[in-house]
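Dear colleagues,

As part of the handover before I leave the project, I'm documenting each prediction I ran so the next person doesn't have to rerun anything. This entry is a single chain, and its sequence is reproduced below.
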Amino acid sequence: MRKELPKVYDPREVEGRIYAQWEENKCFAGVRDAKKKPYTIVMPPPNVTGQLHMGHAMDCTLQDILIRFKRMQGYAALWLPGTDHAGIATQIKVEEELRTKEGLTRYDLGRDKFLERVWDWKNTYGNRIVAQQKKMGASCDWDRARFTMDEGCSKAVRETFCELYEKGLIYKGSRIINWCPNCVTALSDAEVEYVDKPGKLWHIKYPIVGEEGRYVIVATTRPETMLGDSGVAVHPNDERYQDIIGKKCLLPLMDREIPIVADEYVEMDFGTGCVKMTPAHDPNDFEVGIRHNLESIRVLDDYGKVNELGGKYEGMDRYEARKAIVADLEALGLMEKIEDHQHNVGTCYRCHNDVEPIISAQWFVKMKPLAEEAIRVVEEGETKFVPDRFSKTYLNWMENVHDWCISRQLWWGHQIPVWYCDDCGHMTVSRTDACQCEKCGSKNITRDPDVLDTWFSSALWPFSTLGWPDADSEDLDYFYPTDVLVTGYDIIFFWVARMIFSGCEQTKKTPFHTVFIHGLVRDDKGRKMSKSLGNGIDPLEMAEQYGADALRFNLITGNSPGNDMRFYTERCEAMRNFANKIWNASRFLMMNLTITESTLPEKLELEDKWILSKLNTVIAEVTENMDHYELGVAAQKIYDFIWDTYCDWYIEMTKPRLQGEDEAAKVQAQQVLCYVLTDILKLLHPFMPFLTEEIWQALPHEADCKEKFLMLQQWPEFRADLAFPQEEKAVEMLMDAVKAVRARRSEMNVPPSKKAHLTIATAEGEIFAAGIPFLKRLGYASDVSVVAQKEENKGEVTVVTSAAKISMPLAELVDLEKEKARIAKELKKARGNLEQITKKLSNPGFLAKAPENVVAVEKERAEKLSALITQLEEQESNM
């Protein structure tokens, strides 16, 4: 016995129950099948610290739509989920908890005990986001869920580090790196966000040794770094300074003599043409320092405070030191001038504090050799970006990429697999934990305390999650390379680029053939959602209030690849109304159902052929849109077909048969209604999985239907035998006539209860005669006459379509005298309003003072009033 649909659709009752059924029946399982083509998506792993935000909800929805679509198309579909250990974010979270609850630091616990606490925290809170993704309907194979620090992923990280080290592609060196004094760790170039900030340009006088009263003037935006200056550079061709090249100047405040060197790096026409050199705190100065053997003097510590090399300023914060240094220079008369200066400042992507370039011994990946293949696969189309414009962003970054700093001064993460010998100084790099020095055999070895950048393990995600580096991994053989990566444009550099070069290097294959880029979800004013603005919208609250399906459909309609979208809460309400529309249409059908199987009848009426032909077209178009990642376009077409074509037109067209006495006609109507609804539910399922599954399970199905879930049914396909272009055209003629009649009646405020005789003059007499039952019902007609030609009569209202001229006796529609009075009153009001606006627009004073947008609004009002007056005058004439 079929279950009945309740009167009201309650997503809170349905969604949890349906999801549990899918999980219990292993509907999400990615199964290797030699007869099927694989289709794989690896989920961008959210941070274990994460709570589902609107960006996650968008990401999750897009991936779920694609995987459900491909699963229904018969692919062996695998959506592989997982979470990221999120080095800095997780460590900060646990350190905060330690400090606030126990008054302890990580150093009080020591590394091992602290890491135990982090694992406890991860095991307690790390799966929150997984539960939240399930509420969104994510059809991942949860049995395969991975974690970037699980055993398999950790093995892949070690293998990659050791392989790259053995090839000379990983090295340790002292370089200028980006350092965050707040997070107390190094950052890669991709982790630095540049912000335009107002600042100052301080022009400082450095006395030339042995030439009293003569100075070189240098300009800086960071006076605190002058404590570490070890030279001043001028251009070798600068005539002004030829006589001082090779001499020395005195570094103010530190009383240290430093050389004046000539280097082509200096721009002669910028400022004074003299540049202070701080090799330990500026990447360009570092390079000049190497060329001229200048000393690297680091004067800031890891916390952004002046260290012991900073003289009397030791212990001061960098900005506190800046103020003191500027004051001292002014007191000594060595400040030439101070200018306001707008400049780009590097900030930490996580905490947004200013980044400090410092010299430090760190581990790096040599990028130039790795970038070559990663550039080729995109240039030659082995990996495509959707939309294509993002391939230019990617290529531009890869062509100008710097070596990647991969070491981080943290405890939580993949500890670098390097051991230093305390006796001979040798470095042992090993795939397994070393017990002794590989060179001298000493057991006095110490492991590098740093961990790898979180993105190092994330870069291996598409293949480490499928079994790499195990050579006999069946999953890797079958599901890799993966098919599509769905992600936001904001992490192309952080993640996408690194996955591509890692896949090319480690597996000799690009990790995916398509990168599907989506934009950010912004608020209704177009602003980025953020805690500071307080404009974040909780997707789970939206799902609770309106249903996950309504939220998903809101996120996808109007969405186009690569573009940001605005989120309007009221559209969730509109999508809930759409869900209710489908529910009510399904209930109506089921209340009229007597059939037990869903098959098409042998005999099809005109309207049946029309709906089947329209369905056929929408199936072909939606499938093509989905294949081209035009998911928003596909969703809109499905929405229009369901709301307008099926619910508002076809169901109404079938009511005379459903409510008539002819039993055979009743059954035929039921069969077509049920067939079309079944295909509609299949098309809509990837977008609104819960609602469609619940309705489908209540419907009769084909006799040979083996699967008991809609999500495992076959995707509809175009059928040439169900294309009826002539019948489509015929029914659309009838619909145009109904629309025209309804529009005219609406203009005249005629209620549907007031019936009028329709006389239709047309060359398509056969079609209109066959359509009399629809025209009577949908055009609110008392009767319908179809003629070849008709003279126009006074006292009639006429509407014209491309195929017919339709007349209605005015007296049957309105009380003539009352209607004349109404029209006269409206005309008077409209003319008066138009006169006022015309006077305003012809007033030069108003035009000169009023803002452009105000003038434009008034002009638009005038146009609308003119059109209304013309329309009312026509109506008056017809009277």
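The chain has 29 helices and 29 strands. The chain has a mean pLDDT of 91.

All the best with the project,
I.
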